[in-house]
Design brief:
about 950 residues, elongated, binds adenosine-5'-triphosphate
């Protein structure tokens, strides 16, 4: 097949079927790629111009025009537009124009907010695109998977999402789950050989191809990219699976329900006002407009927008604190989290592993002092080299640890002569420890090339590799090693798990039978190290027969009759910030729970150091197997540490906690963690060590893998919920006040205290402008000192409903009083006075509600600049309405005297003073309760 020029590649795409029939070399030639070096950066950028980005076309994104149109597409606006038309027809053109103007102003506000929210979400989505490792210009580089082009060579390993369609060019037991494309739930083992035959193959049978969006569940391999973006198999069905439209969060659901109730209420109000008005002999046109305006007043139309914006901007703030939100509802759920289940390694601890102890069947070598001063690695010194020569089994221990390993040792570019490890920190620590003894990985690879492997999985808790012995002299002089053997297997893993596949132990360079006494001795050493919080790995080997070398051996076949060499202890101290984060959790009524794959003794020590041990009980994975769901339901309330847990068991723990009414955040990084991450209320994936599959399943990604970041995100979540509740209070109380004013005013014998247009002004502009500031209030100081809000609680829980009612009544009464006084004293500006009083009442209420406990006089007004700005803007707008005479006609206003402004101001101040009195009463009661508790404790 002749090579395809990039220029015309796009219309000469081979079908998947054709790729399956090409040999690897032909496939590479067709795509003008080099199997060893990949393509060059220049080729890549040229191809990107032709094929575009490797992304699926997004359908959910709204264009700005669509956002504008949406502002006019809600029922409320439609009602107003109809009202404008009726006004125009009924001869009141002025009213009609005014309504249209105000609706437009409202739409502009809505548009600005929604675009901000869309931008924030788009930026988050951009960050969520996974990275992928490719060969470009002969070296392996990490790029965003959106930059892939046909001809790229991609390196895949367990946990990766396949970023594009490609021909398999290497497969080390690589298995790929393709359920999303084929419906087949069992992962398929991939091969590199061509598939002959002309018959069309189903996707699931194309075992030498990998498809975009599927996930590598086991092993590793490489693919040659054959199709990207919408040309992939996923692209072809993308229309079916794309998430069209926006997600509605549970809170938005509840608010929509509240909105519907209020809409029905509004309809009743409209009918009653209209009928009453006619009975009182008012003009029908005026009554119609008043009724419509009141309907507008009752419905909190700003709510859905405020929620979306609060969530989107909240997600942006969380990102600044290293928590990347993948699903918007997570932002609000975070506020109600009551249990955080966290991995240990890397999340609670630093994951900067350093080998500190080597133990050769009872002979302990403490190397922490030796290696302390030599990070990063230079070359081995005399002392360490002698140590190795004197102790052949030490050499074997270090060598096995370095070879049975996927981390690599790379030259530190910034510092010539220095090395650093790249890859999993546990593995990196082993490569570095060996290098300290002059056993450099690159040289070892030449002497012992890898020919087979059984990758690590957290189920077996072991990893094995088979190597051919190319250079026997590299085997240090030891009579335990058979020089005639051509092959060797190395296995490393959790000590308890490793011992189950060992039959012998290397003791003083002799292979001896691994009897119970030896098992006990090794286990005791393991426990002793673990008690100091040290992470321990065991290492074993066996010589392999020649006939084993050409077969593809399974893990069970590789891992048998092993000879135990020794233990490697690694220091992985708790992260310094975690202790404080745990304390914060505890004061916030959130229980941290550790679920780790590590040894129970190590887990207990680290948990104790961090104060999460709780009752002191530690349950292990094997113990969990014997516990019934009913027993587990009881245990989850007491146990805070689970060790040697297989990822599948995390699911059981999450479900048990959820049955106990908890809202659970759960961390995870591996492929097998995905079900638990999906099941948890908030699945949290690790950004650094996490696999693509875990990230895909999670609602949130920790950019820094840090437990403290989860706590920070919870704090943000709580403050966002506070802001939404604050906005609800402001908006609903204000609406109640206006309703009361219009309803009761005429009953007291005055004409309608607010004109329809003034009601619209208050509702769409006052609320809209102030709402912008209310939604972004920073966290209250006590936000992490209260218990989490239960997810079953309604949005008006914790007294919010009552506060709305009394504050609404208070503001309504104050404004009626002002109106009645001004009307009965025959002041011509009486309506302007009422309007200004309502605006000022709302401004003061918004400021008084900034904190539920702290006095407004103790708060820094500049800590919420948007609210300050909104207040100033509103004052200017209201002054314009009062003092610019051309506006008098539209707003039915008149210029006010200083005395009148003063009265409005004092009336507005009433709400602030009453709210402040309430706050100090509550605080006084709290202090009294605390001191009573203290006295009681002292007396007892
Ligand atoms: P956590 O679950 O808190 O992240 P973990 O890293 O110990 O802790 P797993 O990754 O499930 O959890 O590992 C379980 C055990 O397997 C470890 O305690 C260790 O003994 C062993 N282990 C970890 N990484 C490797 C590896 N690369 N090769 C061999 N064994 C390993």
């Amino acid at each position: 097949m002749s090579p395809i020029e990039p220029r015309n590649l796009s219309n000469k795409f081979l079908s998947v079927q054709q790729w399956t029939q090409l040999t690897i070399a032909n496939a590479a030639a067709t795509l003008q790629s080099n199997l060893k070096n990949g393509i060059s950066s220049n080729q890549a950028s040229e191809r990107q111009k032709h094929y575009g980005l490797n992304t699926l076309q997004e359908k959910g994104n709204k264009s700005p025009l669509r956002v504008i149109l949406d502002q006019f597409a809600n029922t409320l606006v439609i009602v107003l537009i109809i009202a404008a038309v009726i006004s125009a027809v009924a001869g009141s053109l002025k009213d009609a124009i005014a309504i249209v103007a105000i609706v437009t102003l409202n739409a502009v506000l809505g548009f600005i907010q929604e675009i901000r929210a869309e931008r924030a979400i788009a930026a988050l989505r951009q960050l969520a695109i996974p990275k992928t490792r490719v060969r470009r210009d002969g070296i392996v580089v990490e790029i965003s998977s959106s930059e892939l082009v046909p001809g790229d060579i991609v390196l895949l390993e367990a946990g990766n999402l396949v970023p594009a369609d490609g021909r398999i060019i290497e497969s080390a037991s690589m298995r790929i789950a393709e359920a999303m494309l084929t419906g087949e739930s069992e992962p398929i083992e991939k091969q590199t050989e061509t598939i002959p035959g002309k018959n069309a193959l189903a996707l699931g049978d194309q075992v030498n191809m990998a498809f975009m969006g599927t996930s590598v569940t086991f092993g590793r391999g490489q693919i040659l990219v054959t199709a990207t973006g919408m040309n992939t198999e996923l692209g072809k069905v993308a229309n079916l699976i794309q998430n069209v439209g926006q997600v509605i969060t549970p809170l938005q659901h509840r608010l929509n329900r509240l909105g519907r109730i209020l809409a029905i209420a509004a309809f009743c109000v409209v009918a009653v006002i209209f009928i009453f008005g006619l009975l009182f002999g008012h003009d029908w046109k005026l009554m119609f407009m008043t009724a419509v305006s009141m309907a507008v007043a009752v419905i909190p139309e700003g709510l859905p927008a405020v929620v979306t914006i609060a969530l989107a901007l909240g997600a942006q703030r969380m990102l600044h604190r290293n928590a990347l939100i993948r699903r918007l509802p997570a932002v609000e759920t975070l506020g109600s989290v009551s249990v955080i289940c966290s991995d240990k390694t890397g999340t609670l601890t630093e994951n900067r592993m350093k080998v500190s102890v080597l133990d050769l069947a009872g002979h302990r070598i403490d190397i922490s002092e030796e290696l302390k001063h030599r990070q990063p690695i230079t070359i081995a010194n005399k002392k360490t080299s002698t140590l190795i020569n004197d102790e052949p089994s030490l050499a074997l221990l270090l060598m096995s640890g370095s070879l049975c390993n996927d981390a690599t040792l790379q030259i530190d570019r910034g510092r010539p002569g220095h090395y650093r490890a790249v890859g999993d920190p546990t593995e990196g620590a082993l490569v570095i420890a060996a290098a300290h003894f002059n056993l450099l990985r690159d040289q070892l690879d030449l002497d012992f090339p890898r020919i087979n492997e059984a990758p690590f999985d957290s189920e077996r808790k072991r990893m094995s590799t088979m190597h051919s012995i190319v250079n026997p002299s590299a085997w240090f002089s030891t009579n335990t090693l058979n020089h005639n053997s051509k092959f060797v297997v190395f296995t490393k893993g959790a000590v308890d798990s490793l011992l189950t596949v060992c039959s012998h132990v290397l003791y003083e360079n002799q292979v001896v039978h691994l009897d119970d006494a030896w098992r006990n001795k090794i286990t005791a050493t393991n426990n002793e190290l673990a008690r100091d919080g040290i992470r321990v790995l065991g290492i074993a080997y066996r010589l392999a027969a020649n006939e084993e070398s050409d077969k593809k051996l399974t893990a069970t076949q590789l891992e048998r009759n092993l000879i135990f060499i020794g233990l490697v202890g690694m220091l992985d101290p708790p992260r310094s910030e975690v202790k404080q984060a745990v304390a914060t959790c505890q004061s916030a009524g959130i229980r941290p729970v550790m679920i780790t794959g590590d040894h129970p003794v190590t887990a207990r020590r680290i948990a104790a150091d961090l104060n999460i041990l709780g009752t002191g009980q530690v349950i292990t994975g094997p113990e969990l197997l014997g516990i019934s769901p009913a027993q587990l339901d009881k245990l989850v309330n007491q146990v805070s540490v689970y060790a040697r847990v297989a990822p599948e068991q995390k699911l059981r723990i999450v479900e048990a906690l959820q049955r106990q009414g908890h809202v659970v955040a759960m961390t995870g990084d591996g492929v097998n963690d995905a079900p638990a991450l999906r099941r948890a209320d908030i699945g949290v994936a690790m950004g650094i060590t996490g696999t693509d599959v875990a990230k895909e399943a999670a609602a949130m990604v920790l950019v820094d893998d840090n437990f403290a970041t989860i706590v920070a995100a919870v704090e943000e979540g709580r403050s966002i919920n506070d802001n939404i509740r604050r906005f609800l209070k402001f908006s609903l109380a204000g609406n109640l006040a206006k309703l009361l004013l219009v309803f009761v005013g005429p009953l007291l014998g005055m004409p309608l205290p607010l004109t329809p247009f003034q009601i619209l002004w208050l509702n769409l502009v006052t609320d809209g402008v102030l709402g912008l500031g209310i939604g972004v209030e920073p966290s209250e100081p006590d936000v992490m000192q209260r218990k989490p809000q239960k997810s079953s609680e309604g949005i008006l829980a914790h007294g919010l409903g009552i506060q709305i009612i009394w504050q609404g009544l208070l503001m309504g009464i104050v404004s009626i009083a002002v109106g009645w006084w001004a009307f009965s004293t025959k002041q011509p500006q009486w309506q302007t006075l009422v309007l200004t009083t309502v605006v000022l009442l709302q401004i003061f209420q918004a400021h008084a509600s900034r904190s539920s406990q702290q006095s407004v006089f103790k708060q820094n007004p500049f800590s919420n600049k948007p609210l300050l700005g909104a207040t100033l803007l509103l004052i200017i707008l209201q002054a314009a309405v009062i003092y610019i005479s051309p506006l008098h006609n539209i707003f039915a206003t008149l210029s006010m005297s200083a005395k009148q402004v003063g009265i409005s101001f004092l009336a507005g101040l009433v709400v602030l003073i009453v709210v402040e009195i309430f706050k100090s009463l509550i605080n006084y009661r709290k202090i009294k309760k605390k001191s009573n508790n203290f006295l009681n404790a002292a007396i007892e």
